[in-house]
Fold:
Amino acid sequence: MTIVIGVLNVTPDSFSDGGRYESPASAVEAGVGMVADGASWVDVGGESTRPGAERVSLETELERVVPVVAALASEGVAVSIDTTRAPVARACVAAGARMVNDVSGGLADPSMLATVAELDVDYVAMHWRAQSAQMDAFTHYTDVVEEVCEALEQRLAACVEAGIAADRVILDPGLGFAKQVHHNWELLAGLPRLVGIGPRVLIGASRKRFLGALLAVDTVARPETQRDVATAAVSALAATRGVWGVRVHDVLGSCDAVKVAAAWQEAT
Structure:
C-alpha cells in the first residue's frame, strides 16, 4: 500500500507551515503526532523551497534541523532530511535520519550523490531546474511528461553511477517546481509513464498552488490550509496508479484516502 510521509518544516517562511513550530520540542511533538496518525516517515526541512524563497546559510539550516532529527530518531521515528546540501545530509544521518530528500536530485550540490552513496541511505531525487528564487523562469516544456521522465531517468543513472543502489532511489516529478498549473495535472495524468521507469515514485502535491488555483473562487486561490481535502483526493488517485508514497502536511487525511484506494482495488 502507498505510504504517507509527513511534512515537518522547521522554517519561518515555508509556504504553508512556516513559523508553526516555535521550538525544537514543538516540532518533535508534531512529528511524533504524525506517526500516531499513520505516517511511515517524517520529512524534516530547514530551508524553504517555496517559489521565490531565498537560500539560508548552511549554519542556519544545520541549527534548525539537527536537534529535531536527533530527537525524533531517539523516539523511534523514521526520519527523512529534506535538503539539497551534502553537509546537512551527512550531519542528519549521523543524528539518526535514514533518508535524504533532495529537491534538486543532486544538481545543487555536486558532492551530494557521492555522499548519499557513502551513507547508504534511501534517496529521493526530484525533478529540478533551478533554485526556488529562479524556478518560475524555467516553466517552458514541449511535452512536460516526457521531459520530466527523461530528466529523472538521467538522475537515476547518475545516482547509480555514483554508487547508490537503484533500489535505494525514489523519483519525484516535482509538482509545483518550475511547473505551470496545467503541467502538474499533466504529470499526474502521466503517472503510468513515471512509475514505469522502475524505482519507487513519490508524489508531493500537498497544499500546492495548482490545487489553490483549481479551488479558486472569483480568481482568488483557496488558502493553503484549506487544500487538505483536495490533497487527500490526489493521494487516493496517486495510490491507484502505483506510487510508493505521498508527501503531505495533513497525514491523517491522506492515510485515510490511501486506505480507501487500497480497499477499493483489493475488492475489484
User: Anything to note?
Assistant: Residues 148 and 154 are 10 Å apart (CA to CA). The chain has ten helices and eight strands. The chain has a mean pLDDT of 95.
